[in-house]
Amino acid sequence: GEDVEQSLFLSVREGDSSVINCTYTDSSSTYLYWYKQEPGAGLQLLTYIFSNMDMKQDQRLTVLLNKKDKHLSLRIADTQTGDSAIYFCAERSVAGGTSYGKLTFGQGTILTVHP
Amino acid sequence: SQTIHQWPATLVQPVGSPLSLECTVEGTSNPNLYWYRQAAGRGLQLLFYSIGIDQISSEVPQNLSASRPQDRQFILSSKKLLLSDSGFYLCAWSTDSPYEQYFGPGTRLTVT
């Protein structure tokens, strides 16, 4: 079945780059997503990448996908204290013939940004 | 633009009492709808999803149920709450491809 794994914690200094890593097991994944969750709030979609792409950049965010190794990363440039949150990666696979867009989420990485 | 609402924002209920959480979506038609629970850890557990009115699928057998009486309304219910039902409940909607899901603000449920 599908499985998505992330490191649990990341601590960086303000102004540095943050790199959050994620691995997934389902080779039939079509889309991969990054979400941000601030305390007490819902999840906010940051970006997504189609599985036939290697990289996607959106302002301070860069997503890298290594499909061979089933590895996804999110790089945040010039990390700010406001970036402190939990970051989830998720995959959408077609395993089992699902057609409604079921996503499998990782456990989330807590990013702490120190001044 | 599309928006998703959940209420109530917080709820404290005794064990054995009923539950009704509501989710509504505006600005889109025929969305796929989802209920998740996020326990004290961090992982998201998919509880129910719906691809249309009165079309509900359950991912995890439990004492919760879901209904979709209208296209953009999704309700999570229980007849008798358990202590283990405590958690943060999130509703989400998605389009078809690329299937990204958009989440509501969540309901914090504490069962005492």
How many H/I helices of chain A?
0
Q: Which percent band covers the strand fraction of chain A?
A: over 45%
Number of strands of chain B: 11
Task: Identify the overall geometry of chain B.
Answer: globular
Helix content of chain A: under 10%
Q: Structural class of the secondary structure composition of chain A? A: mainly beta
Cα-to-Cα separation, first versus last residue of chain B: 38 Å
Contiguous runs where pLDDT drops below 50 for at least 5 residues of chain B: none
Helix and strand element order of chain A: EEEEEEEEEEE
Oligomer: heterodimer
Residue runs with pLDDT of under 50 for 5 or more positions of chain A: none
Distance between the termini of chain A: 41 Å
Strand share of the residues of chain B? Answer: over 45%
Task: Walk me through this protein's architecture.
The complex is a heterodimer of chains A (115) and B (112). Chain A has 115 residues and is mainly beta. Chain A is built from no helices and eleven strands. Chain A has strands at residues 4-6, 9-13, 18-24, 29-37, 43-50, 55-58, 61-66, 71-76, 85-93, 103-105, 109-114. In chain A, a hairpin with a 4-residue loop joins strand 7 and strand 8. Chain A is globular and about 40 Å long. The termini of chain A are far apart. The mean pLDDT of chain A is 91. Chain B is an all-beta fold and 112 residues long. Chain B has no helices and eleven strands. Chain B has strands spanning 3-7, 10-13, 19-26, 32-38, 44-52, 55-58, 64-70, 73-78, 87-94, 101-103, 107-111. In chain B, the strands form two sheets. In chain B, strands 2, 4, 5, 6, 9, 10 and 11 form a seven-stranded mixed sheet that branches. Chain B is globular. The model of chain B has no long low-confidence stretch (mean pLDDT 93). Classes of the chains: A mainly beta (115), B mainly beta (112).
